[in-house]
């Protein structure tokens, strides 16, 4: 029984080490953008050589305003105002490397919709990643979005998030 238990522990430790060293991540980021917008991004990232990466993402954004009847932000004026969503891809070349972190430019495009029409988007920004144990990463982004045919022509802001390792 001890041999089986020892073999099981050895297999689990080798598998978790292998799993932690792959280059694929699922990430979730939340942020605030100018002017009065909240942003949520769910993405799959495939890291290539030297921390360059391809990111495939789904993005949602809510723009809030002050309620005309009560004069402040209420649930109705937050959730029922202008909303957008998009699906896209971004290439992220690495521009800085240190021992436990690296920085990438983020250049991408997306297509989606708001509450009425089709939207196209061009995304440019910078992302700084910090490596943790087990393949996890924390990151922050400074992002700028140019939306074609949207209420917001330009959006810019800061996003923070976490990246979890996933299978190859």
Outline the fold blueprint.
Layout: H1 2-20, E1 24-34, E2 37-47, E3 53-63, H2 75-79, E4 83-92, E5 94-97, E6 101-113, E7 118-131, E8 137-148, E9 154-165
Provide a short characterization of the protein structure.
The chain is mainly beta.
Task: Give a structural overview.
This protein has 168 residues and is mostly beta strands. It has one domain: Porin (Beta Barrel), CATH 2.40.160. It is 14% helix and 58% strand. The chain is built from 2 helices and 9 strands. Strands 1-2-3-4-6-7-8-9 form an 8-stranded antiparallel β-barrel. A hairpin with a 5-residue loop joins strand 2 and strand 3. The longest helix is centred in the first third of the chain and has 19 residues, at 2-20.
Notable features of this structure?
168 residues; mainly beta; 2 helices; elongated; Outer membrane protein beta-barrel domain-containing protein; signal
CATH architectural group? Beta Barrel
| CATH class (first level) name | Mainly Beta
In one word, what is the shape? elongated
Beta strand % = over 45%
Tell me the Rg in angstroms: 20 Å
Which structural class is indicated by helix and strand composition? mainly beta
- Count all strands and give the number: 9
| Fraction in helix | 10-25%
Spatial order of strands in the largest sheet: 1-2-3-4-6-7-8-9
**Main β sheet profile:** 8 strands, antiparallel, barrel
**What's the order of the H and E elements?**
HEEEHEEEEEE
Number of domains: 1
Mean pLDDT: 87
* Tally of helical segments: 2
- CATH topology tier name: Porin
Low confidence ranges: none
Spatial separation of the terminal alpha carbons? 33 Å
Keywords: Signal
Signal peptide: 1-20
Protein name: Outer membrane protein beta-barrel domain-containing protein
Organism: Bacteroides cellulosilyticus CL02T12C19
């Amino acid at each position: 029984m001890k041999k089986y238990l020892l073999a099981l522990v050895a297999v689990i430790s080798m598998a978790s080490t292998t799993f932690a060293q792959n280059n694929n991540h699922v990430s979730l980021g939340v942020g605030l953008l100018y002017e009065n917008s909240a942003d949520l991004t769910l993405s799959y990232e495939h890291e290539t050589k030297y921390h360059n990466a391809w990111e495939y993402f789904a993005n949602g954004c809510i723009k809030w305003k002050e309620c005309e009847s009560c004069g402040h932000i209420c649930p109705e004026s937050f959730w029922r105002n202008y909303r957008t969503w998009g699906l896209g891809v971004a290439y992220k070349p690495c521009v800085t490397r240190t021992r436990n972190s690296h920085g990438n430019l983020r250049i991408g495009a997306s297509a989606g919709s708001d509450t009425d029409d089709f939207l196209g988007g061009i995304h440019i920004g910078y992302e700084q990643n910090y490596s943790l144990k087990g393949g996890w990463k924390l990151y922050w982004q400074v992002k700028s979005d140019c939306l074609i045919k949207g209420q917001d022509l330009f959006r810019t802001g800061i996003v923070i998030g976490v990246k979890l390792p996933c299978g190859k």
